[in-house]
């Protein structure tokens, strides 16, 4: 398991507020994509750190990109994409 993205401060005082696994099977001769979103329980609660893990260790890493929000915001939106002809499996962790 390798970290694809780690944004924000992570010093051990953060609380894991949300965790999700995003997985999709391969589709022949194309890439697969997915978008996920998370918002804190209150607009006053800010995200301190976002970590995205690639759960495949076979060298077929996909890509993950924060497209909206993130640390300092109260929400985050992530876009995931596999390599051509491959599936994907990522873990999203949001800390407050």
Model description:
- Helix content is 0%, strand content 53%.
- It is mainly beta and 96 residues long.
- The protein starts with a strand and ends with a strand.
- A four-stranded antiparallel β-sheet has the order 1-4-7-2, with no helix packed on it. It has a three-stranded antiparallel β-sheet with strand order 3-6-5, with no helix packed on it.
- The chain is built from no helices and seven strands.
- The mean pLDDT is 92.
- It has a single domain (2-95), classed as Immunoglobulin-like.
- It is elongated and about 45 Å long.
- The chain has strands at 2-8, 16-24, 33-39, 49-54, 63-69, 75-81, 88-95.
- Pfam families: MBF2.
Low-confidence runs of at least 5 consecutive residues? none
State the helical fraction: under 10%
Radius of gyration: 14 Å
Beta percentage is over 45%
Taking the sheet with the most strands, its summary is: 4 strands, antiparallel
Number of helices: 0
**Which structural class do the helices and strands define?**
mainly beta
The total domain count is: 1
CATH class identity: Mainly Beta
Compressed to H and E, one letter per element, the order equals: EEEEEEE
Mean pLDDT: 92
The CATH topology name reads Immunoglobulin-like
Write the CATH architecture name: Sandwich
CA-based shape: elongated
Strand order of the largest sheet: 1-4-7-2
Query: What distance separates the N and C termini?
Result: 23 Å
Q: What is the total tally of β strands? A: 7
InterPro entries: MBF2 (IPR031734)
